[in-house]
Design a protein that fits this description.
Elements: H1 2-8, H2 11-14, E1 31-32, H3 60-70, E2 77-80, H4 82-94, E3 101-104, H5 111-119, E4 122-125, H6 136-142, E5 148-152, H7 164-174, E6 179-183, E7 205-210, E8 223-226, H8 229-238, H9 246-255, H10 258-283, E9 288-291, E10 298-303, H11 306-315, E11 318-319, E12 321-322, E13 332-336, H12 340-355
Helix pairs in contact: 4-5, 4-8, 10-12
The chain binds pyridoxal-5'-phosphate (PLP).
Residues 36, 82-84, 109, 152, 156, 183, 185, 210, 212, 218, 223 line the site of pyridoxal-5'-phosphate.
């Protein structure tokens, strides 16, 4: 019975290695430092109770607010069910299954691969250089084979920002033959590093954003695509009729008010201070081998014995993101920045290990 069903499943789905979502990992922990979520919730009221009606596909006010936040026009914005849906929507709009290819640069966010493999799109992986920057010449060598390039800036899980000249150079080289997607899920933590100013000049550029990280709204599943309106209109042909639910529109619209954006940036500033404190104190722990500076709300750390550290913290209720199975990241753990209290707790455990 089960075997027969399996035969019906598409071959690439049968062999697909799925995304390891933070929630799938489980753990009895009460300190969640594994999914780069904001540590403190924001609360909103629901004002629109007309749940008997379908929502607007692209809610006008919400798009206008995001456009004003991103310094763009609202016809350059599309909203969707989180950045993850954006990754999928772009691939389904531009790539022919079993024919086209995408390119990404590991270590990076795993969903580019998962979505491509699900649809049946070939992946070229051009690993990053040792300083976590793009290997431009190796990317350029593959250009005539790829349709869409996905880069993540600042990059998850390494935390660094890409050299802006590399991005400009890449856009110049690919001309309009390839689509460049820049995933800016963490851009609020280093707002000056956005590539959105390049959108006017480069019609093949697409930027992905989300309310899941700095806006502390991972639970509502709301993301944005920024691009020129020709691209937006093609994406709108593919998107489901009602991608954003009425309560999500309600909450996102409030979150994007001028006051709430100011308050988001204030909280981001405080979190960055905690990250700086955390980094200095992690460096002092003997079990820590290497830490990379970060422009985000997480740190990538190499430990002398990362599996042991992961398990010790796991048993104390602290859930981290093990990077061991990622190419080039054996011995690495990614730690999201929590509250000061949570970070202090992690440090106190690591310090007690160092001395025994
Ligand atoms: C968290 C994350 C996403 C997913 O964001 P959602 O809006 O929650 O779907 C996409 N890209 C990167 C790089 C991320 O870290």
């Amino acid at each position: 019975m089960n075997l027969n069903i399996k035969k019906l499943v598409r071959t690439n789905v049968q062999t697909l290695k799925p995304y390891q979502s933070a929630r799938l990992l489980g753990g009895k922990g009460d300190i969640w430092l594994n999914a780069n979520e904001f540590p403190i919730p924001v609360s909103f009221k629901i004002f629109n109770n007309a749940m008997n009606r379908y929502p607007e596909c692209q809610p006008k006010l919400m798009l206008e607010l995001y456009a004003s936040y991103a310094n763009l026009d609202s016809d350059q914005i599309l909203t969707c069910r989180g950045a993850d849906e954006a990754i999928d929507l772009i691939m389904r709009t531009f790539c022919e299954p079993n024919k086209d290819s995408i390119l990404f640069c590991s270590p990076t966010y795993d969903m580019y691969r998962v979505v491509a493999e699900t649809i049946g799109i070939h992946c070229y992986n051009i690993p990053k250089l040792e300083n976590w920057q793009l290997n431009l010449s190796a990317i350029i060598n593959q250009l005539d084979k790829v349709k869409v390039i996905y880069i993540c800036n600042p990059n998850n899980p390494t935390g660094n920002v890409l050299n802006p000249y590399d991005i400009q150079y890449l856009l110049k080289i690919i001309d309009e033959k390839v689509i460049l997607v820049i995933d800016e899920a963490y851009i609020e933590f280093c707002a000056e590093s956005t590539s959105s100013y390049l959108l006017t000049k480069h019609t093949n550029l697409i930027i992905i954003r989300t309310l899941s990280k700095a806006f502390a709204l991972a639970g509502i599943r709301c993301g944005f695509i920024l691009a020129n309106k020709i691209i937006i209109n093609f994406l709108l042909k593919v998107i489901t009729p009602y991608p954003i639910s009425t309560p999500v529109i309600d909450i996102a619209t409030q979150a994007l008010s001028k006051n709430n954006i100011v308050s988001m940036y204030n909280k981001v500033k405080k979190l960055i201070d905690i990250r700086k404190w955390f980094l200095v104190n992690l460096k002092k722990c003997h079990c820590v081998e290497k830490i990379f500076s970060s422009e985000t709300n997480y740190l990538l750390v190499r430990f002398i014995d990362s599996s042991k550290i992961f398990n010790i913290l796991w048993k104390r209720g602290i859930v981290l993101r093990d990077q061991n199975n990622h190419l080039g990241l054996s011995g690495y753990i990614r730690i999201s920045i929590g509250t000061k209290k949570e970070c202090k707790y992690v440090i106190s455990i690591l310090q007690s290990l160092s001395t025994d």
